[in-house]
Amino acid sequence: MLIAEQKRKENIIEYLLYMYQIEDIVRSLNCDFERIKATLIPSVLPNPSFQLQYERWYEDICKELKRSGKTQKGHLYELEEVFAELTLLHRTLLEIMIDEKYKVLVDNAMPSIEEFSRKSTLVNAHPIEVCLHAMNMKLQLKLRKQEITAETDAAMDSMRILLAYIGREYAKMKTGQWGINLN
Q: Model's pTM, two decimal places?
């Protein structure tokens, strides 16, 4: 919970990837709050004074996944909102602000995005969604200590760079550092 809050403030891309991991962990425990309370929370609790906050946070995640029918796949509503903002930002950078550096990054990443999309279930997904899922997959492979080929790593690197750029622009947009008025 504290890590999620910190990541949300500091790096929206890391926040999304972290929360994807949390969703996966909660699902692996069948969204069973009592099981999460008994096994997961003690292992992540920074100190006992946060017990109730962590319990509420995980309980809310369980409830939301169940309520929204996403106990098997899909993302929390809050994460979907952030993703919607990122897709809007993507279009804004390309079509309104005509950010040449971003366009180059998109063009560089697009072959990898298209290939990953074809090899996954994300055939008609937005490029940013594909990049997020690719980074999540890479993280999963690293956690499982599975080898990532140099070719795959290079392909994912172009997506990582694209996400890093849009993440920085997102932070600027949210804090009013763009210095322009889009209204």
A: 0.90
